[in-house]
Amino acid sequence: MDCDVRDLGLAEKGRGRIDWASREMKVLSLIRERFEKERPLAGIRVAACLHVTTETANLLATLRAGGAEVAVCASNPLSTQDDVAAALCDQDGIDTYAIRGEDQETYYGHIRSVLDHHPHVTMDDGADLVSTLHKERPDQVAEVIGGTEETTTGVIRLRAMAQDGALGYPIVAVNDARTKHLFDNRFGTGQSTIDGIVRATNLLLAGRVVVVCGYGMCGRGVASRARGLGARVVVTEVSPVVALEAAMEGYEVLPLRAAARTGEIFVTVTGDTSVIRGEHLEAMKDGAVLANSGHFDVEIDRKALEELSVERRRIREHVDEYRMPDGRRISLLAEGRLVNLAAAEGHPAAVMDMSFANQALCVEWIVKQRSALEKAVHTVPGDIDDEVARLKLQSMGIDIDELTPEQEAYLRSWEHGT
Ligand code: ADE
């Protein structure tokens, strides 16, 4: 195998954790069994740029079971689980380029290594793979049949590329499947973000003021889980409709400049840049804790934190404490990178099961469609979404009702009224 991982000696540990996650990924396991028989991806080279976690390992094994050759690199320098990377390389036959804590140069070097495999399909989480391919290797773009994108931020970037006429092949926005964003973004980000904050700090959330910046699907998850632990949750938003939803859900809604004065733990989940800035840092109380769970590390202005402070120390793993000239201490978790993946293990396997079932089925769909798809960002076919939900319910032992013929006819008719 061609690999760049921290330590192959960690492979056994990784194996156990991958197998543990696999038990929670029942839908993906069913797809894997079918793929083993049908081999729908035979001869296809897949390049994946994903968080290298136990859940991702199970997705990649599913693609391999379908006959694909797979190479993977990290989609974030701090999210790689080194034991998983070792197991992928040592035991699973997957060319793996990922080292936790890698610097920017190594991160992009690893993306290039994956591109050296000349993929037919790209699988991205944040669109760094697709953008590097288009920027640095325009001649290779024509070799790609299509790609998938996992996350909101990546879909936004890819739509911008398509808008500019710069997208060289079709991409399926897996993030936009209902069985992805309604669950992964909400319940996955919700639980794992709180998990990351608690693992990093061991702070009690009960009675604390938690400020959630952004009330999209991820923000909803974080706000509801923080409230579930007894926090007093404040939401900040820029969209009037979304702010109204948060208000009617019972959260206090404030502009960040006001929330900055009372907040104790701040979590950014907006997908945008420079959300917590110098002006907010100036207003914060002693002991404020800052965490980001948006895809990129641009939501908290770290440079402002560095410039405004007089001292920084790593007070415990994943916690950098900055001291301000007036003595206030503000702590930044996980260097402002995804706190749920850097300080915890990312979303639990049971929710990644649905996201990655969509990924596997979408790769199969892309390969079946071949060149029939337009060079645009496509939504996940409705039947894939429905199938993932059906299988997930089945795996959870949940049965649901069916419409009677009379009800179906009623829904199709327009004559009935008052
Ligand atoms: N994104 C968020 N959580 C994840 C996980 N556990 N594995 C891969 N990607 C993720």
Description:
It is a single chain. The chain is 46% helix and 16% strand. It is an alpha/beta fold and 418 residues long. It folds into 2 domains: 8-182 and 347-395, Rossmann fold (3-Layer(aba) Sandwich); 186-342, NAD(P)-binding Rossmann-like Domain (Rossmann fold, 3-Layer(aba) Sandwich). The strands form 2 sheets. An 8-stranded mixed beta sheet has the order 9-8-7-10-11-14-13-12, with helices on both faces. A 7-stranded parallel beta sheet has the order 3-2-1-4-5-6-15, sandwiched between helices. Helix 12 (278-283) links the parallel strand 10 and strand 11 (288-292). The mean pLDDT is 97. The structure holds adenine (ADE). Adenine (ADE) binds next to helix 3. Adenine (ADE) binds at residues 50-51, 53, 55-56, 188, 341, 346-347, 352.
Q: Going across the biggest sheet, name each strand in turn.
A: 9-8-7-10-11-14-13-12
Low-confidence stretches: none
Query: CATH superfamily of the largest domain, called what?
Result: Adenosylhomocysteinase-like
Mean pLDDT over the full residue set: 97
Summary tags:
Rossmann fold; seven-stranded parallel sheet; 418 residues; eight-stranded mixed sheet; globular; alpha/beta; binds adenine; 15 strands
SSE blueprint and pairings:
Layout: H1 11-22, H2 26-38, E1 45-50, H3 54-65, E2 69-74, H4 82-90, E3 95-97, H5 104-115, E4 121-124, H6 128-136, E5 146-149, H7 152-163, E6 171-173, H8 178-201, E7 209-213, H9 217-228, E8 232-236, H10 240-248, E9 252-253, H11 256-262, E10 265-268, H12 278-283, E11 288-292, H13 302-308, E12 311-316, E13 319-323, E14 329-333, H14 339-342, H15 349-369, E15 377-379, H16 382-395, H17 405-412
Parallel strand pairs: 1-2, 1-4, 2-3, 4-5, 5-6, 6-15, 7-8, 7-10, 8-9, 10-11, 11-14
Antiparallel strand pairs: 12-13, 13-14
Helix pairs in contact: 1-3, 1-4, 2-3, 2-15, 3-15, 5-6, 8-9, 8-15, 15-16
The protein binds adenine.
